[in-house]
Specification:
Blueprint: E1 2-8, H1 16-27, E2 31-37, H2 44-50, E3 54-59, E4 73-74, H3 76-81, E5 86-90, E6 98-102, H4 105-114, E7 123-127, H5 131-143, E8 146-151, E9 160-161, H6 167-172, E10 175-178, E11 204-207, H7 216-223, E12 227-229, H8 232-246
Parallel strand pairs: 1-2, 1-3, 4-6, 7-8, 7-10, 8-9, 10-11, 11-12
Antiparallel strand pairs: 3-5, 5-6
Length: 249
């Protein structure tokens, strides 16, 4: 039986195994998808040894950037993004498993956003500085949407600190994307600290979190009249892209 999975830590929030195993059952595919919570990427080598039927795996927080150091080859899109969320394991031609990294988050976010964005969503704020934020910014760049990053630890020119944000800055940026894990299960009572009073009816507030389905970030934005979107559609699109990568011949 072929095996696929997800690495990251923690993984209690993830719906990936539920999605893939339902797909396998419905389509009669002899495979299983498992969660592999790794407290450190130093455990990756032993994971590959313990699971010789592992064909590929997804990567989630906090390893989307760090995992790149462990790969034998990186796809151009992932290289340009600076983050990897999908890894294909190639075994047949090598004495040890070779790992090839890809990024399907970029397409997942771009395709899901394209379905709901309006003509006035031309300027965006991206909350976060991890691998998910890098994928969002790569997608926005490809879509021609001007964006600014917001980080707790801004270290590059043009990056806002949360303390820099004013209602006026929020008002100008009609698309706001939460690419942080703040508000994700089990910490569902948390929310990024932004001046929500700057949000109005023309705003689209997109939270990459999908568990819970409605975060406090989404709830507070919606209370200001904004349209909101969670990350479930993005998850499904990127998951299907991962499946195609794992099964390329």
């Amino acid at each position: 039986m072929k095996k696929y999975g997800l690495i990251g830590y923690p993984l209690a929030h993830s719906l990936s195994a539920e999605f893939f195993n339902a797909k396998f059952k419905t389509e009669g595919i002899n495979a299983v998808y498992e969660l592999f919570p790794l407290e450190s990427l130093s455990q990756l080598k032993s994971l590959l040894s313990l699971h010789p039927s592992l064909q590929g795996f997804n990567v989630t927080s906090p390893y989307k950037v760090e995992v790149m150091r462990y790969l034998d080859r990186i796809d151009e899109e992932a290289e340009l993004t600076g983050a990897v969320n999908t890894i294909r394991v190639e075994r047949a031609r090598f004495r040890r498993p070779h790992l090839v990294g890809y990024n399907t988050d970029v397409k997942g976010f771009a395709d899901s956003l394209e379905l709901i964005r309006k003509p006035w969503h031309t300027q965006a704020l991206v909350l976060g500085s991890g691998g998910a934020a890098l994928a969002v910014m790569r997608a926005l760049k490809k879509m021609g949407i001007v964006h600014r990053q917001v980080s707790r630890t801004p270290s590059a020119p043009g990056v806002y600190a949360y303390s820099d944000l004013t209602p006026e800055i929020i008002e100008r940026h009609k698309l706001i994307v939460n690419a942080t894990p703040v508000g994700m299960y089990p910490h569902i009572d948390q929310c990024p600290s932004i001046p929500f009073e700057g949000i109005g009816a023309e705003h689209l507030c997109y939270d990459l979190i999908y568990n819970p389905q409605e975060t406090i970030f989404m709830h507070r934005a919606q209370a200001q009249g904004a349209s909101v979107q969670n990350g479930l559609e993005m998850l499904l699109i990127q998951a299907l892209c991962s499946w195609r990568i794992w099964n390329e011949r």
